[in-house]
Amino acid sequence: MDKRETVERLLKTLAANARAGEMGISDWRWFYAFVVAAASSRTRWCASDVQQLLTEQGVDESLAQRLGELYGHCRAAIYCAGRGNSIGNEGWLKFLS
Question: Among 94, 19, 95, which residue's Cα sits nearest to residue 57?
Fold first, then answer.
């Protein structure tokens, strides 16, 4: 399985867990695994992309929006962590649209 397939499998698992209702501790483990896999595979999804993908897979719109926003913040933090303190707003904004 290549990196892109791993990201898509994790997204489907996250969506299935999110459709079941409120996110529990083990569900957040899937969420963070998804974020890290997306970052390592250089998936170019921003917050609104993830929100749309989750909504398309049947996740409640409000939860999909919240997860999309969290995804954007996590990706921005990963992006900025590798660049020290010299990163400007463009690093954060890259993933938050």
Answer: 19
